[in-house]
Every structure is written in structure tokens, then in C-alpha cells.
Amino acid sequence: MRTATYFFIFLNLSLAVFEEPAVYPLPFLVTSLVEVLCLLVFFGRLTHFAKVTLRNVFWKDTKNICIMVAILLSLTDLAIYGVLRIYNVRSIRWSRIVRPIFLINFAESRQIRRAFRSIRNTLPEITYVFLLFMFSLLMFSLMALKLFGERNLQTAEGLPYFKNYLEIVFDLYVLVTTANSPDVMMPAFDFSSWYALFFIAFVIINTYIFMSLFLAVVYNNYKKHLKVMFGGVNCD
User: Fold this and answer.
1) Which of 72, 119, 166, 168 is 20 to 30 A from 139, alpha carbon to alpha carbon?
2) How far apart are CA 106 and CA 90, in angstroms?
3) 134: which residues sit within 8 A by CB, 6+ positions away?
């Protein structure tokens, strides 16, 4: 039963690789039938668990309620998406975000729940570092708008460069990960090499200082909560 449960959880999560938009798209009928099969297995597993558990214990367990709600939401979204698809109305599968609930809340996933609770308990303690990082990102985005917004610069694709504040925030946020480096800097650098100082300051403060600080805070707090959980606190 445990192996079967893990297999269908893996199959359900793997559907994201084959559903639109996907790298390897499969027909909607195929993915929907596989998802319905997985949901039926999850419902059967939950029904079996209810048969061997006292009724008041079963309904007081939040994990069981979460699984039932996730099944209901997935079926509802699948039905709505299918009907809209018949009438050629474009929509999205919003219920995909609930699929990890099955991995977390089944009884066999005790270790995953412990890790998840450690992450959840860590979040409030890293809020201040995250807010400081966001403040820095927003301030640098505002400076970039003032520096480059009125100079009519263009990207390599011919698009306006740093004209929209929200787009600047997103571009600089991605730059923190160095994913769009140095492409996002080149239009400003081509206009004047002195503008490189702005991006050097941004990378030093946000990538090397804030990201290191963020990682240290997350690691220390996660390790602390994990020690508490394995030190005798009941995680179920």
C-alpha cells in the first residue's frame, strides 16, 4: 500500500511535465484520465484509512481533511477546464498547486511533514531579512527608473529599456540570481560605462550580502527547528 501510494503521488506530480504548457505535451484526455485515476486511488486509500480508524479520530485529523479538500478541488477544476476546453475557451489549471498536498498529508509521509513543518516554522523568523531585501530591491529599481527611464534606451530585441517600474523590479530580482546577467546590464553599459557602477553596487549588496545573509538565517533556523522536532516533539 505504501509503495502504491508513493507511485500514484509521483505519477500525479509528474503530470505537470505533460500538461499544457509542457515540454512533452500529451492530449488532454490522456492526462485527465491519469489524474482521475490518481484521485480515485487517493480516495480509496483515504476510505480504507477511515475504515480502520475511529470516526472521531479520523475527522479530527487535519491531514485527512486536507486530502479530501484537495481531491474535491482537483476534480472541480478538471471538470471546469474540460467544459471550457470543449467551447474553446482558454483557461488555466489552478488546482495544480494543491498536488503537493497529497505528498505531505498521507500518513506514510511523516518525514516530509517534519521537514515541511520546519520550513513553516522558519518562515516567520526570516521575514525581517526578506523585507530588508525587498526594500533594497525596490529602492534600486526606483533608482534604475530615474537613471535610465528618460534616456530612451533599448534592449537587444528593440524593446524599451527600464521604462516600467514593475518590469524593472522583476529584471533586477532575476539579476539577483545572476540568471539574466549580463544581458540586463548591457544597454546601460553601452550608453555609458559609468553605469556599470550602479550594477556593481546592486550585485554586491543584494547578491553577495543579502543572499548570503538570507541563506545563513534560513539554515540556522531550519536546523534549530529540526533539532527540536527530532528531540522528542510529536510531529503528527
Assistant:
1) 119
2) 33
3) none
| Whether 170 contacts 206, CB under 8 Å | no
Which tens digit of pLDDT belongs to each residue from 146-188?
A: 888 877 787 777 778 888 899 899 989 988 988 877 888 888 8
Residue 211 has pLDDT above 80, yes or no: yes
113 domain-assigned: no
Domain that holds residue 75: 1-108
Q: Are residues 174 and 152 in the same domain?
A: yes
pLDDT digits (tens, 9 = 90+) for 90-101: 888 898 999 999
pLDDT category of residue 235 using cuts at 50, 70 and 90: very low
Spatial separation of the C-alpha atoms in residues 115 and 104, rounded to whole Å: 10
Whether 158 and 123 share a structural domain: yes
The DSSP letter of residue 235 is -
pLDDT in tens, 127-140: 888 899 999 999 99
Assess whether 4 and 101 both reside in one domain: yes
Note whether residue 236 is domain-resident. Answer: no
- Cβ neighbours for 175, distance < 8 A, ≥ 6 positions apart: 181, 184, 185, 199, 202, 203, 207
pLDDT of residue 31: 93
Which residues is 144 bridged to in the sheet? none
Total domains, the chain: 2
pLDDT at 138: 94
The CATH number of the domain holding residue 135 is: 1.10.287
User: Residue 116 burial by CB count (10 A; 0-12/13-18/19+): exposed, middle or buried?
Assistant: middle
